Amino acid sequence: MLTAQINGLTDFPTVHPASPEGFARRFDLPMRERSIPKQQDLLLPDLAHLLLAGQACRNRVLRDGRRQITAILIPGDICDPEAILAQRADYAVNTLTRCTVGEIPLARIAALDHHDLTDALNRRLRREEAIAREWIVSLGRRVGIERMAHLLCELHWRLAAVGLVIGDSFEMRITQSDFADALGLTSVHVNRVLKSLRDSRLIHLHGGRLTLLDRPRLERLAQFDPAYLETSAVPV
Amino acid sequence: MLTAQINGLTDFPTVHPASPEGFARRFDLPMRERSIPKQQDLLLPDLAHLLLAGQACRNRVLRDGRRQITAILIPGDICDPEAILAQRADYAVNTLTRCTVGEIPLARIAALDHHDLTDALNRRLRREEAIAREWIVSLGRRVGIERMAHLLCELHWRLAAVGLVIGDSFEMRITQSDFADALGLTSVHVNRVLKSLRDSRLIHLHGGRLTLLDRPRLERLAQFDPAYLETSAVPV
DNA sequence: CGGTAACTTGAAGATGCTCAACTTGAGTGG
DNA sequence: CCACTCAAGTTGAGCATCTTCAAGTTACCG
Question: Residues in domain HTH crp-type (chains A, B) (predicted)?
Answer without folding.
Answer: 142-216
